[in-house]
């Protein structure tokens, strides 16, 4: 074979290998919860759009356990090159630091924010047979009882638990936190009448509310949600100070180059602004909320301070 042809073929092979390598980028989204849950569902929906925007393959890695800490540690063990992201709810990011004295990670030092992804305000639901039609009636009923009214939560220190404490402080309601191992058993407890109510993420409750199995008494937010626009906020009903946005946000390792973070933010914002993904997330019950890294950084700081004050004030520990 003539030398010039051999060189041409070698050059073509090298170019093909380079092109294949360039197209073989894989981005991992670590989810600190089990497959099939709300955070996982949002991650997979976002991942499909991100794959197109970044021209890569997106893989969702589920790393459940330790209230999100295992997922956080998994990100820190990966290269800080922007190819591994951590999608977390507010708990692991803003609540864990006040619950775990030896957490193993520092949100401010170890992570760089990319973008807020969705807002998930907590919805207060009760059994369909509960006579209360609003929060005023529900609180009044708790005060009539000799014993505290049992309220289901998805665990000590979880957002549903902290919402219960906020409601108790705001109204003087006689409430008892009954922690379950996750949202699903907590919801089942309300359906079975074993617990009076539950504060939960809308994605996990919307189907029960629309089917008439659970009754929504109010939203723990400053404004109504487009997902369930007919449900009044607790503030509208005269209860101030119950504001529990269980937001989901994307983070990368702190040493990730700034230009890479900026590129990831651009891709996430464009993805969440896509009409098809926007509609899909709303149908799931989550409100798309793309942001700048700076906005997520400020939100994390303010929420960490808010939850730390409540946790310390109410002496909440994992031994409760």
Q: What is the topological layout?
A:
Layout: H1 3-23, E1 26-31, H2 38-54, E2 57-62, H3 69-76, E3 84-89, H4 90-99, H5 107-110, E4 111-119, E5 122-127, H6 135-144, E6 149-153, H7 159-171, E7 175-179, H8 183-191, E8 197-201, H9 202-210, E9 214-220, E10 248-253, H10 258-273, H11 275-284, E11 287-288, H12 293-313
Parallel strand pairs: 1-2, 1-3, 6-7, 6-8
Antiparallel strand pairs: 3-10, 4-10, 4-11, 5-8, 5-9
Helix pairs in contact: 2-10, 2-11, 4-12
Structure description:
With 320 residues, the protein is α/β, with parallel strands linked by helices. The protein has two domains: 3-119 and 247-313, D-Maltodextrin-Binding Protein, domain 2; 122-220, 3-Layer(aba) Sandwich (D-Maltodextrin-Binding Protein, domain 2), CATH 3.40.190. The protein contains twelve helices and eleven strands. The strands form two sheets. The chain has a six-stranded mixed β-sheet with strand order 2-1-3-10-4-11, with helices on both faces. Strand 1, helix 2 (38-54) and strand 2 form a beta-alpha-beta unit. The longest helix has 21 residues, at 3-23. The chain is globular. The model is unreliable at 3-22 (pLDDT under 50).
Q: Percent of residues in helical segments?
A: 40-55%
% residues in beta strands = 15-25%
Q: Give the CATH class of the largest domain.
A: Alpha Beta
Distance between the termini: 79 Å
With strands numbered from the N-terminus, the spatial order across the biggest sheet is 2-1-3-10-4-11
Kindly provide the radius of gyration, computed on alpha-carbon positions and rounded to a whole number of angstroms. Answer: 23 Å
* CATH-assigned fold name of the largest domain: D-Maltodextrin-Binding Protein, domain 2
What is the H/E string?
Answer: HEHEHEHHEEHEHEHEHEEHHEH
Tell me, rounded to a whole number, the average pLDDT.
Answer: 91
**Oligomeric organization of the protein chains:** single chain
Helices and strands: which structural class?
alpha/beta
Q: Please, how many domains?
A: 2
């Amino acid at each position: 074979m003539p030398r010039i042809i051999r060189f041409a073929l070698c050059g073509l092979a090298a170019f093909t290998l380079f092109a294949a390598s360039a197209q073989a980028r894989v981005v991992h989204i670590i989810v600190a919860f089990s497959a099939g849950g709300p955070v996982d569902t949002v991650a997979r929906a976002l991942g499909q759009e991100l794959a197109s925007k970044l021209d890569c393959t997106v893989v969702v890695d589920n790393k459940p356990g330790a209230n999100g800490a295992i997922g956080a540690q998994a990100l820190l063990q990966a290269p800080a090159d922007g190819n591994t992201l951590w999608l977390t709810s507010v708990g692991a990011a803003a609540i864990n630091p006040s619950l775990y004295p030896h957490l193993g990670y520092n949100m401010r030092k170890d992570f760089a924010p990319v973008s807020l992804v969705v807002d998930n305000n907590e919805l207060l639901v009760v059994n369909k047979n509960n006579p209360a039609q609003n929060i005023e009636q529900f609180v009044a009923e708790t005060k009539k009882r000799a014993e505290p009214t049992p309220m289901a939560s998805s665990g000590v220190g979880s957002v549903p638990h902290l919402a219960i404490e906020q409601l108790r402080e705001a109204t003087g309601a006689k409430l008892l936190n009954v922690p379950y191992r996750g949202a699903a058993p907590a919801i089942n407890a309300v359906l079975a009448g074993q617990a009076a109510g539950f504060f939960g993420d809308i994605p996990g409750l919307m189907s029960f509310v629309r089917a008439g199995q659970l009754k929504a008494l109010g939203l723990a937010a400053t404004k109504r949600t487009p997902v369930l626009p007919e449900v009044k906020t607790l503030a509208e009903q005269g209860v101030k100070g119950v504001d529990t946005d269980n937001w989901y946000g994307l983070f990368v390792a702190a040493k990730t180059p700034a230009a890479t973070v900026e590129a990831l933010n651009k891709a996430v914002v464009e993805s969440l602004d896509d009409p098809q993904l926007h509609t899909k997330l709303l149908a799931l019950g989550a409100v798309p909320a793309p942001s700048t890294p700076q906005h997520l950084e400020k939100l994390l700081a303010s929420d960490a301070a808010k939850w730390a004050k409540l946790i310390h004030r109410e002496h909440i520990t994992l031994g409760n």
